[in-house]
Every structure is written in C-alpha cells, then in structure tokens.
Amino acid sequence: MTEAAPPVNPTSRREQLLLLAAALLASVAAILWSWRNHAFLLYGDAEAHIHIARRLFDSHRPGLTQLGSVWLPLSHLLMVPFIAIGPWWRSGFGPAIPSALCYILGCLGLYKLSRKWLSPAASALGLAFFALNPNLLYLQTTAMTEPLFLCELVWSVLLLVEWHESVNNEQKKADRLLWAIIAVLVCAVYTRYDGWILAVLAWAAMAVCLYRRGRLLQRNFILASVVLALAPAGWMLYNAVVFQDWLDFMRGPYSAKAIEARTASSIVDPHPGWHNPWVAFQYFLKAAEMDAAARSFGWLILAVSLAGTVLAFLKSRTKPALSEGFIIRRSNQSWLWTLFLWLPLPFYAYSVSYGSVPIFLPVWKPFSWYNTRYGMELLPAFAFFAGFSVEFLLQRLNPSRRTRHTAIFAACLVLVVANSLTMLREHPLTYVEAQKNTAARGYYNAVIPAALAHLHQLDPTGEILMNTSMYPSFIPNAGLTYRQTVNESDKQFYWAALDYPFHSAIILAFAGDDIDKAVQTHPEHLRVYQRFHSPNQGWDQADATLYVTDTFPGVQTTPLSTAVPAIPAQ
Predict the structure, then answer these.
(1) Rounded CA gap, 372 and 396, in Å?
(2) Which of 71, 116, 167, 192 has its CA 20 to 30 A from that of 374?
(3) Of the candidates 132, 38, 108, which has an alpha carbon nearest to the alpha carbon of residue 415?
(4) Does the N-terminal peptide bond of residue 134 adopt cis geometry, omega within 30 degrees of 0?
(5) ∠ CA(1), CA(174), CA(9), 5° rounding?
(6) Residue 544 region, left (φ>0) first, then alpha (ψ -120 to 50), else beta?
(7) In what order do the strands lie in the sheet with 485-486?
(8) What angle (nearest 5°) sits at the alpha carbon of residue 513, between those of residues 511 and 517?
(9) Residue 370 has what DSSP assignment?
C-alpha cells in the first residue's frame, strides 16, 4: 500500500490578505516613482506596445488587423480600456494598471506555490526576494510584457501541481483545474513565444500523466487539447490572412531575424552566443543573475536556488515518515512540475543561439545593454527554489529554540532587503537599459512633436502623412490622435497617399523611407518646413524632414523642386 503524504499547509485567508496588501503597497510605490521620474515610456518597446493597442480603435481602419504580425496580442488587448483615456495614454500610465495587477497576482501565485511545501517563514522570504526586486517593480509600471508572462508562468505551474494532486481521487476538481490550466496556457501563448514552448511541454506532461492512468483519450482532455492547439494555429491563420504569410511573425520585415540583420552591422556581428549554445547559456544566465541580484550577490542567489532544487529533489525521494525536519509535503511526481520554472534557461539558450535574440551585458562583450530584461524570467525559479534552502537551514535548528530560529529568519530577511537596496544603489539593469533606450530617441521625441503641434495649431483640420511605428510617441506628445494622420497601419489609405503626398497638409519623411521616396518622386505643391538631424545617429536615427503644401497657412517655407536631391539613407 502506498503511504499517504502528509497534508499540505493551507494558505490562510489572513496570509493572502496580508500578501495582497503588501504587494499592492509595493506596486503603488513603484508606480508613483515612475510617475515622478517620467519613466513609464523609457523603453521604445513600451511606446510601441501602447501604439499597437491605441490604433485598435484610433485609426482609419480600426479593428484586430491593427495588432501587427510579430508581437503577440494579449498584452495589447488588456491595455485597451486604460489607454482609451487620453491623459493615461499620453503619459503612459494606463498600461501600468494591468501590469501592476499581473505583478500582484504573480506574488500571490508564487506564495501559494511555496506554501505547498514550505513554512510561512521560508515562503515569505522567497516572496520578498521576488516582490522587492527593483527590476520587476520597474517593469510592472510599464507596458512591457514581462510581468504578464511571469504571472502566467507561476500560475501555470501552480495549477499543474494542483491538477496532479487531484487527478487520482477528485475527478471533478481535476477537470476544473484542467480548463484553468488551458486558459492560462492560452494566455501565455498569446503573450510571448516562450509561452508556446511552455504550452507544448505542459500539455505533453499532462498527456503522459493521463496515459499512465489509462485516461489519455477521455473526452475532457481531448477537447482541452483542441482548444490549446487552436491558440498558436489562430495566430498563424491571422498572419496568413492579414500579411499573406502564416510565418510572417518569424520571417517578416519586423521579425527578430529582420531586426538582427539591420542592427548587427552597427553593433556586433555575429552577436555573442550566435550558433554557440554554451555561450548563449552563459549570457542568459548572467543576465538572470544581474536582474535578480546585486553584482556581489549574483553568484550567491544562483548557488542558493540550485542548492534548494537539489535538496528538494533529494528529500522528495525519501518517504515522508522517514524524513526529519525538512519535508516535501507532496509526492515526488507533484513536486517535479515545479521544474517548469527553470524552462526559460534552455529556451533562451536556444533563442540566443539560433533565434536571432541577442543579449548584450555591460560586464561582458560588447559591453552594452540590449534585451537584458529577458533574464527576469528566471526570477520565479530563483525565489521559489531559494526558499527550499532557507527551509532546510531553518529546520536544521531545533524549532523549540524560537529565539535562534527568529534570528536566522531575520538575518535572511536583512540579506533580501540589502540585496534590493544595493540593486537600487547600483541602478537596476532594466532601468539603465530603458534610460539608454530613450536617450537615443529623446531628441526626436522632443523637437518633432513640438513642430507638429505648432503646424496643427495653424491648420487644425490638416492631415499628417507619416510613419507612426518608428516613433510612436510623436502623436501623443504633439497632443494629436492617430485619426489625424495617414500612416502605415492604414494600408490602402497610406498607399494611395504615397502616390499623391501633396493631398496631405503635412508630411513627415525620414531619409530613405517610403514617404521620403514618394516626396522625391512627387514634389509638386510641397515645401520644406523644417529639417532635423539627430545627434544619436544609428540605423533607426535617419535625418527627418517636415514638408507642408504650398497653400499651408501662416508659415514661410523653402520651395521644393525635382532638382533637389534626395537625402541619402543612413
């Protein structure tokens, strides 16, 4: 007869309320900091995410076809209600609301997962390490997708564990949990491409589990499998219908592969880890260390979390009745589901090697900042498995010696807080990358919107022909809406405008882009209003020119003729 495992420690309502209150307080404090420091939109990707969400309803062709082909749609759909409010859109505050909710739910899920095996003290320390991470606190104030995906990763693991615990004896509960798992995995599929691998592996693990019980072909699991398979298939179908290529997200002009091809020559080619899984593994792991801990603590958190993983596995092989002190309070099979938290490690080792996903670190060549935030995906693994090491340390002491037990807990808590404060003093890696990101765009984001706003005051009904994807903040910074423009997301309207650019009152062209070529081909009735040259030249920092029609009111312009040569592409 199989010996029953000891009952799990339930997470009390009081614990959950205290956790939610603390996470809410930390989230609000971070949002207020970002508000005061104008940090919501430092990432160019954050601007782009908001731009995609806004054009779903603010364009000449509103609808789901505005979602684009590369970035997955869930985060954009979640922020739509919040950026529909003009001031929240222009300031970048709107997306902080769903990001903050994901941060809070992620904290709750991680604590509930830890409490299945660990004491409240060890669980709280692991949660504190996760929740007080300055990189996570900053990202949850932005439109970036990391907080959403971390929440999905944690909850998928938690639900998988609970499903496995109930699959033998509580069929109705297992069925409910199965659909909850499918819902979370579908969300993950529509959040990041990491979610596709997570979904495949989670489904395969559940299929093996049911196969061993002779229940693989049960109706509920087959239906759930179909629903899960439709998620990636739906995205491929969308790409095929809208962009005429079912793999446009992988090989289109805005894919990671295309971006790497454009940027490699100006940064480094090939990037570190290119076709070298071992180097790629090291770069991602180093990024994860730097995202999770201060420079002097990075090796320590990695060692502690790895030790916790080994300790948990060894103890899970021991019968509960024979264990002393530290106990895995579920069977070995249930605990093994938590290893999904380490999934980002092999995924990004492969992605950096063969998926055109470079990671640059300031401490290793090429000594720069690029995609450093990807290391955040190991933060739940670090926090969760470090809790097992802490639990082992606490249980080595006699629980009756409360003073000594409390002293160890306090010392660990001091280390967690010291790590967060040191990271703040050293400046969080993701925030530094965001600052450098916005510095490259800062000049154009200031001067061109000011010029557009001035021209709009002179002609409030004048339409603007421009590309809005390269610099999404031009329109909100100028106090305009996308409906007052004709841009690349308007498809047929945009293509028609390129044939007759003088039909638009204002034209913004970047050297070498489609609008610049159209102006050089059809210069009639156009005048140069102002030229711009960014001090931060790069592949996406070409010279810009504002044109107006020859009937535009109230401005002195320079005549444009066919003899004027085109500005050379950078």
Answers:
(1) 37
(2) 116
(3) 132
(4) no
(5) 65
(6) beta
(7) 485-486, 464-465, 506-510, 544-549, 526-532, 558-559
(8) 85
(9) B
pLDDT tens profile 500-537? 998 999 999 999 899 999 999 999 999 999 999 887 65
Run of H or E including 288: helix 277-292
Q: Bridge partners of 506?
A: 464, 548
If one counts every other C-beta atom within 10 angstroms of the C-beta of residue 440, the result is 17
Rounded distance between C-alpha atoms, residue 175 and residue 218, angstroms:
11
Contacts of 201 (CB under 8 A, 6+ apart): 340, 343
pLDDT one-digit tens code per residue, 487-503: 998 888 999 999 999 89
* Cβ–Cβ < 8 Å for 386, 308: yes
Rounded to an integer, what distance in angstroms lies between the CA atom of residue 390 and that of residue 525? Answer: 73
Q: What length does the chain have?
A: 570
Q: How far is CA 286 from CA 281, 312, 359, 360, 379, in A?
A: 9, 24, 10, 10, 12
What is the pLDDT, as a whole number, of residue 11? 77
Q: What are the backbone angles phi and psi of residue 540, rounded to the nearest 5°?
A: -110, 20
Nearest to 145 by CA among 112, 106, 177: 106
| Cβ-contact 178, 221 below 8 angstroms | yes
Contacting residues for 28 by C-beta, under 8 A, at least 6 apart: 100
Three-class DSSP category at 486: strand
Query: Which tokens hold the place of 55?
Result: 């054009």
Task: Provide CB contacts within 8 A for 559, sequence distance 6+.
Answer: 527, 528, 550
SS3 for 178-197 is HHHHHHHHHHHHCCCCHHHH
pLDDT in tens, 202-250: 999 999 999 998 889 999 999 999 999 999 999 999 999 988 888 888 8
SS3 531: strand
Residue with tokens 């997200």: 249
- Cβ 456 vs Cβ 556: under 8 Å: no
- 268-281: buried (b, 16+ CB within 10 Å) or exposed (e) per residue? beebbbbebeebbb
65 neighbors 55 (Cβ within 8 angstroms): no
